[in-house]
Specification:
5-stranded mixed beta barrel, 5-stranded mixed β-barrel, 21% strand, flat
Length: 318
């Protein structure tokens, strides 16, 4: 017991100087300068006592309220949330309302896109369809556009169809909107008309091209039928039309052959078909595939590898 009292006295005498040293200004300055506990420039402070003081200052008004007032405010907020939730529109009603909105918007767009005709359709001043002359030029107004062509009003009892392939041959037209717009005034040629069916076919192509196409139709019987053609048959043809994917080639068959741009010997990555395919160019090609049922003929301008090549003889000089 005597020794235990002596040890306790010595520990108390040792702890008191340490406690006075920890609270001394020297130790506090050294503690602040260390990299472990001290804050340096650029350090990210995750939490500090100042944040807690700001939070307490923001909630000071709330903390100053009485418990009864706090309970009333919380209850009113909960009732207001339940009331707003009941006001929400059911999913089925919202879907129905949005569908009607989109239908109305589409109808308004269609109504705004309508073109004012020069004459009403029921006007007596319109020309009868049977009085029109095939091959004559007429001034027309583009009424509407479709994916396959445009409907044009030329002052007769019905609108004529201008097919997308009859707009131009200078470039490939994938959709009529690339060259025409509703309300445009254009000059067209009457190609065909049927007073009984109330139908007309129009064209914007030059007269020379139309006459050439008529000549091709006249000698249809003299053309090569597809059953007489075989794979790898060699043909010579003329490019009639260039598109974004290839060209149509006239080879003397009942249908024009299709030549894909990748089957052309001058094809290179980065080039478009119009760079190496021109209308009226003569080209040597071979039959790649044919479909007699659908009257389709596929060509290639690259010589097939399985064809026998020209025979070469090497003579040794004496």
């Amino acid at each position: 017991m005597k020794y235990f009292a002596t040890i306790c006295a010595s520990l108390v005498g040792f702890i008191v100087p340490i406690e006075s040293f920890v609270h001394s200004p020297t130790f506090q300055s050294r503690l602040a300068s260390t990299s472990i506990f001290g804050e340096k420039e650029g350090d990210i402070v995750l939490y500090s006592d100042d944040d807690q003081e700001k939070t307490l200052s923001k909630n000071k008004r709330w903390n100053s309220l009485s418990p009864a007032v706090k309970e009333r405010i919380i209850k009113e907020g909960q009732q207001r949330a339940i009331k707003n939730k009941k006001k929400r529109e059911p999913a089925a009603d919202k879907k129905r309302r949005m569908l009607m909105f989109y239908k109305k918007a589409a109808a308004d767009t269609k109504r705004m896109s309508r073109v004012e005709r020069p004459l009403p359709l029921n006007s007596d001043e319109r020309t009868v369809l049977r009085d029109l002359v095939i091959g004559q030029n007429y001034n027309g107004t583009v009424i509407s556009l479709t994916s396959f062509g445009a409907y044009v009003d030329i002052g007769t009892e019905c609108d004529g169809l201008l097919h997308v392939s009859q707009i131009t041959r200078e470039r490939f037209i994938e959709h009529p909107k690339q060259a025409l717009s509703p309300g445009d005034q254009i000059n067209v040629t009457l190609v065909r008309a049927s007073p009984a069916l109330k139908k007309m076919h129009l064209s914007m192509l030059p007269r020379e091209i139309l006459e050439e196409e008529d000549e091709d139709k006249d000698d249809f019987e003299e053309r090569i039928p597809l059953e007489d053609l075989a794979t790898d048959d060699e043909l010579w043809g003329e490019i009639k039309r260039v598109t974004s994917y290839g060209a149509y080639v006239e080879v003397g068959a009942v249908v024009q052959g299709w030549l894909h741009f990748m089957d052309h010997p001058e094809f290179e990555f980065g080039k478009v078909p119009s760079d190496f395919m021109k209308v009226s160019d003569r080209i040597r090609c071979w039959v790649s595939n044919k479909d007699e049922d659908n009257l389709r003929l596929k060509l290639t301008a690259i010589r097939p590898k399985d064809l026998p090549g020209p025979r070469r003889e090497i003579k040794k000089l004496d």
